[in-house]
Design goal:
The complex is a heterodimer of chains A (178) and B (199). With 178 residues, chain A is mostly helical. Helices cover 74% and strands 0% of the residues of chain A. Chain A has a domain of 100 residues. Chain B has 199 residues and is mainly α. Chain B starts with 21 loop residues before the first helix and ends with a helix. The chains are: A mainly alpha (178), B mainly alpha (199). The interface between A and B is large, with 106 and 92 residues.
């Protein structure tokens, strides 16, 4: 909390702009959230950031609610509310506007081209999210093994992801993650 | 709000005959959101298409495709567009409040607990373990999305993907700067490739 401006205003401005660049969804914006929250504003430490990510994954609701936790850490209830609305409302209004416009001219092939063009970008962003989070939390061989194991299990089975989170939590409790 | 369904409404699943009320929108989205661990989309499809029959599968796919192609949290965009289709802006706000309100409250409680007890060693260890597994889940999504590009041997798309990964993940450049360069480049490439294919 060492920025000069009012932290709530900083939260509002930061997440409103960030949401407009979250191509492919909230998880694509995680590298930017980490950059802003840990490196630029020092709102959270590396460990707190991965903790916040873990808590968000453990809780029900859309992935975007990680910003609720970041906002809460920065400025309590007001921060949670402002960060959540800033991340959700601008793009929701944009979606509403575009959906009304598109229903009139759905013959255009541009939406399909733009959509195809955005796919590699959002995969690259999500890959970067995984990489940044792994770099801050996978410090031991067992930790890397848990990450790799969850990745493989989620890719090849239909096992409920919650079980993998629980398994990771148990291994952590047993002191194996480090 | 009085139910405005007529006796004939049960004969065909015509959506416009019985649009959901604001309360119904709020409750339905709150339910699917609270059921959704690690993503709400599956539950949203189940509730909207299968359970309430508010949309056909095709309508749902089209709406989701639009919301996926626009920036921001996809499921929030979908909720907003969906709610407004039935009840205008009030419907959008009701559905959005249902989707985000209850889980955000849970998140605030979790945040408060974390601030109070986050330094306890056992909790730190548990969260570290959960984080490791959660990162694996995200990598699985990345692999699943990459598979079609690899199968098509779409070298250019894979190159764009790697470039974005390096710019954001390794060089830690600001998101806006990277995307303002990458989006036009990727659109130009995609457009040129499609033109070549059809020529």
């Amino acid at each position: 909390m060492n920025s000069d401006a009012n932290p709530v205003a900083t939260l509002a401005w930061t997440f409103a702009v960030m949401s407009l660049f979250a191509v492919g969804g909230a998880n694509s914006a995680i590298p930017e959230m980490h950059r802003v929250a840990v490196e630029v504003n020092h709102w959270l430490t590396d460990k707190q950031f991965t903790d916040v990510y873990a808590i968000a994954q453990l809780s029900p609701g859309p992935n975007v609610l990680i910003v609720t936790l970041i906002g809460y850490s920065v400025a309590g209830l007001a921060g949670a509310l402002v960060a959540t609305l800033a991340m959700c409302v601008p793009t929701a209004v944009l979606a509403l506007t575009v959906s009304r416009f598109l229903s009139r001219s759905s013959q255009s092939r541009w939406p399909a081209i733009i959509q195809a063009a955005l796919v590699p970008l959002s995969i690259g962003l999500m890959g970067a999210s995984g990489f940044i989070l792994a770099r801050t939390s996978d410090h031991t061989v067992v930790a890397i093994f848990v990450t790799a194991g969850a990745a493989v299990l989620a890719s090849v089975t239909k096992l409920n992801p919650l079980w993998m989170l629980v398994a990771g939590g148990c291994l952590g409790f047993a002191g194996l993650i480090g | 709000m009085p139910p405005d369904s007529s006796p004939a409404a049960t004969a065909t699943p015509d959506l416009l005959k019985s649009p959901p009320t604001l309360v119904e929108l709020f409750v339905a989205f709150a339910k699917m959101s609270l059921a959704g661990f690690g993503g709400v989309l599956v539950w949203a499809r189940r509730a909207i298409v299968d359970q309430h029959k508010w949309m056909t599968a095709d309508e749902f796919n089209e709406t989701f495709a639009l919301c996926h192609f626009l920036p921001g949290p996809n499921i929030v965009n979908l909720t907003f567009v969906f709610g407004s289709r039935f009840r205008g802006l009030a419907g959008a706000i009701a559905a959005f409040s249902g989707l985000v309100g209850p889980p955000a409250l849970i998140m605030v409680v979790m945040g408060a607990l974390y601030h109070r007890y986050g330094e306890i060693d056992a909790l730190r260890r548990i969260l570290s373990g959960v984080a490791c597994a959660a990162i694996g889940l995200m990598l699985a999504v990345v692999f699943r999305m990459m598979t079609p590009l690899i199968k098509r041997r779409d070298a250019i798309a894979l190159l764009v993907m790697v470039a974005v990964f390096i710019a954001i993940g390794v060089l830690r450049l600001p998101l806006a700067a990277v995307l303002l360069a990458a989006i036009p480049i990727s659109i130009l490439i995609t457009y040129a490739m499609r033109k070549k294919e059809t020529a």
